[in-house]
Amino acid sequence: MKRSTLWMLGVYYYASQLMGVLSFHYDTNSGEIYTSPSLTIYCAVVSILTFTALPLVLRVDLNLQTMNAPDLHIRIVGAICSIRIVVILLTMTMNWTKRHTFMTTLRRFVKLRQKFLRKWQLSSGVENKFETAVRLKFLWGSLSDIGLILGSLEYFRHQFRLENPILSLALGVYCSILNIAIFHYYFLILNINILLRTINEELQRIMEQALKENPTKLCIQLSKDLDELAYFHFQLHTLVIRINDMYGLQGISATLCVYLNNVAMIYMNYMAWQYTYMREFYSLWTEVVTVFAMICYYVELTICFGCMMDLLVLYDHPG
């Protein structure tokens, strides 16, 4: 793996610990997953501070004059923020109630991956697809998060009467915690996809060797390889089920936010073309940044959904 790709993964890893989403360590050399008193105490403090910030969010002074106007997108954006806040609080809670389950599942996956790679190596094509997927997700996800945070500053000032830019920035960063949790899910599914791709490549190799003129000498070895591949295929399937259970809440909320965001975007575009009052509230800079951020957001969604669809194809159509 290239050094730049490792740096990208390192950014998400340390950002997850900084925001209290990841309450354990991972050793990239040995694959060991462990806890430490310092990280446990730090994540506990961050979780408590996260819950104490909830009353501040609920006390935001809404611009009632604007809210009484036919601004459907404002209510939808408010609903999206509320969903994200609730899910983030639930995620912080699950980090402690299901901490042992998370670590057990990850340890099982790491051991399974190490055992698999001791017998079958990843091809250069599979490794390139993996690195490309990580880079694209990091690039478009980072641009989307930064753009949405910057674009929301003026929105918070007008619609929520938040004159303090630091508070607006903190609220934007707070809402982006959910995106980090979604990246964890994406990265796990991506790792499973590359193993499934390797299994499919090995199945193709077995079928090609079985079609040779004299496959008798290879029958025993091919049958052993086929049994082992079937074992790994089944184990990966059970892991996918457990991972989906671990991140089911975040996935449901993210999907709901996508649909609500689609409705808000359609309505905002219609109002921008039909009326001019929106342009009186927001500067050209905010409009440009928001449009750019939404483009990055939908590209990132395409990458995530593509990864999940690849999982279905690789599992249902092996070989």
UniProtKB/TrEMBL annotation:
Biological process GO annotation list?
Answer: sensory perception of taste; signal transduction
What UniProt keywords are attached to this protein's entry? Answer: Cell membrane, Membrane, Receptor, Transducer, Transmembrane, Transmembrane helix
Question: What does UniProt give as GO cellular component?
Answer: plasma membrane
Q: Does the keyword Flavoprotein apply?
A: no
Location in the cell reads: Cell membrane
Write out the transmembrane intervals: 6-27, 39-60, 72-93, 168-196, 247-268, 288-315
Membrane topology is: Multi-pass membrane protein
| Pfam families found in the cross-reference section | 7tm_7
Q: What is its main location?
A: membrane
Function according to Swiss-Prot or TrEMBL = Gustatory receptor which mediates acceptance or avoidance behavior, depending on its substrates.
Recorded family membership: Belongs to the insect chemoreceptor superfamily. Gustatory receptor (GR) family.
Q: What is this protein called?
A: Gustatory receptor
